[in-house]
Amino acid sequence: MAQDSVGFSSDYQFWMQKLSVWDQASTLETQQDTCLHLPRFQEFLRQMYEVLKEMDSNTIIERFPTIGQLLAKTCWNPFILAFDESQKILIWCLCCLINKEPQNSEESKLNSWTRGLLSNILSAFRFDTKEVGLFTQGLEFTPADYYPGLLKNMVLSLVSELREYHLNGFNTQRRIVPEKIRLLSRICIPLVTLPDIEPLVEALLTYHGHEPQEVLWPEFFDAVNEAFLLKKISLPESAVVCLWLRHLPSLEKATLHLFEKLISSGRNFLRRIECFLKDSLLPEAACHPAIFRVVDETFRYALLETNGAPEVIAAIQVFTGCFVEALEKKNKQLKFTFKTYFPYGSPSLVMVLLQHPKEIPQELWHQPLKHISEMLREIVEDQTHRSYGGPFECWFLFIHFGGWADIAAEQLVMSEAEPPEALLWLLAFSYSPRDRSLQRAQTMAEVKAVLIRLKKLLGSPSLSAEDLQAAAAESRDRDPRPPLCQQLIRRLLLNFLLWTPRAHVIAREVLTLMAPTDELTHEMTGFLDQTLYRWDHLRMEATGPRKLARELLAELRPAGSAV
Amino acid sequence: MESLVEHLQRFSELLAVSRTTHVSTWDPATVRRALQWARYLRHVHRRFGRHVRIRRALERRLQNQWGQEGASGSAPVPGLTNFQALGRGDLLLSLRLLENRALGDPDYHYLLRQLFPGPGVPDPDEEALQGSLARLARCRSAVQLLRFSGPGEKSALEDPVLKTQAELLLGRLREVPKAEAEGPSRFLSTLWDRLPQNNFLKVLAAALLLPPSSPRPQGEELEPGTPQTPGDGAQELVRWLLEKSDVLAAFCRSLPVGLLTSVAGRHPALCRAYLGLLTDWGRRLHYDLPKGTWVGAEPQHVSWEELYGRFQSLCRAPPPLKDEVLTALEACKAQDGDLQVPGVSIWTDLLLALGSGS
Questions:
Q1: Closest residue by Cα to residue B77 from B12, B133, B14, B5
Q2: By three-state DSSP, how is residue A193 classified?
Q3: pLDDT in tens, A476-510
Q4: pTM for the complete prediction?
């Protein structure tokens, strides 16, 4: 307790000094400094209230003889009063000073003085001219009627000043000076979370002057971004895009904020990831290549740091899906070549990957798949011409559109013909990009063998879980499969279960035989969720497989975890 | 229903008293009761918001009260003007009490405890009131901050202070009981008598120039059954101005010329009245041969320069106003004999001056 009070005393001295320097915050320096300290000062006010509310008025004056000065200086600083909840906490503090029954003239004077301050903040009319006061009071209006209306009209007037310049360019008579705009952006810093100010914030963000440097205050961008991320302000997409384009730190913070959300919510199902993404406005904003690159770089970094974690890959895929959707909506307005978004990929490859499977009849899906596989293979295996980065760049580009790999896996399982090499290669590459040619060839051979064995089982009259498991198992006389290869095989087995109606009855048995650990269960739920998500987006009927997938997902998912 | 009406009555009386020195006789219990009644009325507002019949009955009562208080001359506007106001009764009462220096210290102390209970308030009504008051304080400081950015637009068309007063005026005008046709006129006349006239005229002009669909004041929702024609308020103002020739004369004489032109452009009836006044003023001037200009018989008459300035402004306006003005001038000139010689008819000289100038 003693330590707290010592700490509090020194804080008190610190803020007293600050307030004296700030005075009424009428200069650039005092305004800047005040804005920097607003959140901390609010915290201090809160602490002060906690201390004051335990004491009565006389004790307070004894303990903090200069408290009157401190509170008065706070009242006279409009930046402080305008910020968040500071005015409310200040009022609470002032209430503590009121003496219920003043015993002497000094106590009465204190009461009177405090009432004056409260009146100043709340109930008095303060006008430029007396006539305005008489008019408003004559019509029986209170400050609660006058000030909100006045604020709205002042905001409208400022917005039209900003827009007028914007529309008329150089030749308008009433050109708004850059200094005024800078001042406005400073003034708005404490006010960003006040809904009435929103039109002004929007107008400032979308204002494009002809000055070479940024005219808005950097702390203004920070404040708006912070409020936007915490959902304390609602801005149209165009304003948010302007914010991010003009102030890179805000964009970076927004991206990291999204990532934190994706990670911290634990096991995320793709539908939920899509919600988070759409909510954040990043996919729409990413239609601007500059923004896309920043977000993409962050994804790339996360991928490398987590060594290709499936959650990150899934997030990249969903992001790309939302991004492409947004791009299509804006089709008429923005015209950037795809090279600007994916400089590290060959343009023709990007075009093929961007095709939406929905637009191609299902029977013809093997065509683009083959094409993709061949193009990728050419780039990856060509050691001499590193024009489009190495295997990692290729793979990174490919996984943005990872739906193709999933389709390849389905195709392999569903078709009766011999597994085409192109598809095998594609799958092996997507699961294990770092493999050398030899390893990859081995993986492809393994997968092919398993597929052939599984299909043979379809010929037999009865199908048992053990048979299936045996078909998918490693052969004893060879080297053990690398884990990524094993993962791929598991994937194919699950696909087989979903797409073979006869196998539906034994599906659960098969899963039990696979003896899933927590990690394996996690892998399988991820796969099932991804598959269902993809079928929804492709509008595939697949009633039978869908039903099974849903049931399995429900059973594997631990009770109570969110969708 | 009767008890409801009684509560309404009692609370209105309370509101009226809350501004007077009579509150010095109160004690904390009185404050508590007052706040409780306010709370009850807020509850009524919430509950019967959709009950058209009950709402109408209550509104009728309130309007009767308006009539009584207006007749007694105590205030042009009663404390509670319509059903909407019931939802804000506590805010109204609180602000009046907070501002009233006659309220004793123990009462004030109690009032603060009720209005600002502190963080983590379980009662939603109390939290709402505390929040409203805090928001008001924040709003005030926002206004102060925005003033830092400089004077900005000062023309009456865009001056935020005038515009806000105009919106408030139209808001009140909408609430005046329409039971008697004379209601709005009488209300405006009372205001004219009581309020500073210069400012009032400017506000009238601003009100006449507000965009046709004027936004509603804070906190009001659209009510079914109230007349939706947005031009209503402005029409009342025009009607009243045309009735009161002294106000009209002051209006046309003391307001800035450009402002009057804008008003004339928007309201044809006022345009005609303005032109009428201008012709009257013009007829009072006679030509002084030695000086070679038109002069007035008395010092307070409008001068040639002023007259010319006004017509010049009107002719700079876009058609149809410009055309109407020129037509009127031509007609006056024709009445005087349609001569082209300067110094005989003021209208000829005006047209000559305008012709060369514009």
A1: B12
A2: coil
A3: 667 778 888 888 888 888 888 888 888 888 888 88
A4: 0.86
Q: How far, rounded to the nearest angstrom, does the alpha carbon of residue A146 sit from its chain's CA centroid?
A: 39
- The residues that bridge with B288 in the sheet, in sequence order, are B293
- Confirm if A142 and B99 have CB atoms less than 8 A apart: no
Helix axes A518-538, A270-280, angle to 10 degrees: 60
Q: State pLDDT tens for residues A15-50.
A: 999 999 998 888 889 999 999 999 999 999 999 999
* Amino acid at the residue A309: A
Task: Give a three-class secondary structure readout of chain B.
Answer: CHHHHHHHHHHHHHHHHCCCHHHHHCCHHHHHHHHHHHHHHHHHHHHHCCCHHHHHHHHHHHHHHHHHHHHHCCCCCCCCCCHHHHCCHHHHHHHHHHHCCCCCHHHHHHHHHHHCCCCCCCCHHHHHHHHHHHHHHHHHHHHHHHHHCCCCCCCCCCCHHHHHHHHHHHHHHHHCCCCCCCHHHHHHHHHHHHCCHHHHHHHHHHHHCCCCCCCCCCCCCCCCCCCCCCCHHHHHHHHHHHHCHHHHHHHHHHCCHHHHHHHHHHCHHHHHHHHHHHHHHHHCEEEECCCCEEEECCCCCCCHHHHHHHHHHHHHCCCCHHHHHHHHHHHHHHHCCCCCCCCCCHHHHHHHHHHHHC
Please give the Cα distance from A316 to A526 (Å, whole number).
Answer: 14
- The answer to whether the CB atoms of B142 and A87 lie below 8 A apart is no
Chain A residues with CB-CB distance to B169 below 8 A? 139
B99: how many CB neighbours lie within 10 A of its CB? 19
Q: Does A13 touch chain B (CB under 8 A)?
A: no
Instruction: Give the model confidence (pLDDT) of B163-174 as tens digits.
Output: 999 999 998 888
By Cβ distance, the residue of A98, A136, A150 closest to B112 is A98
Among B75, B92, B149, beta carbon nearest to A142: B92
Is A78–B141 a contact, with Cβ atoms under 8 angstroms apart? yes
Q: Which two tokens stand for residue A390?
A: 């190495």
The residues, ordered by sequence, that sit 6+ positions from B52 with a Cβ below 8 Å of its Cβ are: B224, B225
Q: Interface pTM (ipTM) of the complex?
A: 0.89
| B296: number of Cβ within 10 Å | 17
Q: Tell me the one-letter amino acid at B268.
A: P
User: How high is the pLDDT of residue B69?
Assistant: 60
